[in-house]
Amino acid sequence: MGQEIFKLSTSVFKDDLIIAAKLLGLWNGKLMVFADDNDTEALMDFMVFEKPTNHAPAYQRFYDSNPKMTDLQQENLNGILNFHSSLFEVKQIDSTSHTIIFVDLLDEDKKEFLLMDVGLSRTTSVGFIFYTRLIPIRDINMTSGLAFVFDNSLKEKLLSSISLATFKKRRKLTSTERFLLFYEKNRQHGLNTRAE
Q: Rounded to whole angstroms, how far apart are CA atoms 5 and 13?
């Protein structure tokens, strides 16, 4: 579903792609420069879910176009419309059922989320820190496919960076601003992992 939304967005709003690439530091003035596959995944996720321009986010424009969908596609789109992005800590892993319990570190109540992800359930560890986007489907969550992963030793540093950015803006950061902040932190300190 994300790839369909990305294609629609880039075919209709081509300038958004360049603006997004500039914000992520992937535009050299003439073309896009990617260091690795993580950069292409980040650009696609950013284009689909965030609002780098005055246009509505791509997922919203896709929804507004009233596309014909199967029941499964409609269920996935409903999940996308209700995504939740944040900085999470891995609290528990069940590799048999491929589930992970995440704690939302940016929520003052430390709300917990149940995530199903085959790749992450095999490659992550309790205590790892994730910036990711959860897509609710029925009674469980999936990721959008992109995750910025950090060692637990960086937890306080990451939380401090959010606090400092919020203080400088004198307001709560937008979803787009949080994405850009953690994208940069991922380039500096991120770990490689796999989401499915």
A: 12
Q: Is the CB of residue 148 less than 8 Å from the CB of residue 131?
A: yes
Q: What is the CATH number of domain 85-189?
A: 2.40.50
Question: Is 27:18 a contact under the CB 8 Å cutoff?
Answer: yes
Write the CB contacts of 55 (distance below 8 Å, at least 6 apart in sequence): 13, 16, 61
What are the tens digits of pLDDT across the range 5-52? 767 666 666 778 888 899 999 998 888 888 887 888 999 899 889 977
* CB within 8 Å of 29: residues ≥ 6 apart: none
Work out the burial of residue 80: count CB atoms within 10 Å of its CB; fewer than 13 is exposed, 13-18 middle, 19 or more buried: buried
Q: How far is CA 23 from CA 27, 47, 86, in A?
A: 8, 11, 19
pLDDT level of residue 1 (50, 70, 90 thresholds): low
Domain positions in the chain are 2-80, 85-189
Q: Using CA atoms, how far apart are residues 176 and 28, in angstroms rounded to an integer?
A: 21
- Cβ atoms of 85 and 13 within 8 Å: the answer is no
Distance of CA 143 to the CA centre of its chain: 7
* Band of residue 196 on the pLDDT scale cut at 50, 70, 90: very low
Asked whether the whole model's pTM tops 0.85, one would answer yes
Average pLDDT, the chain: 88
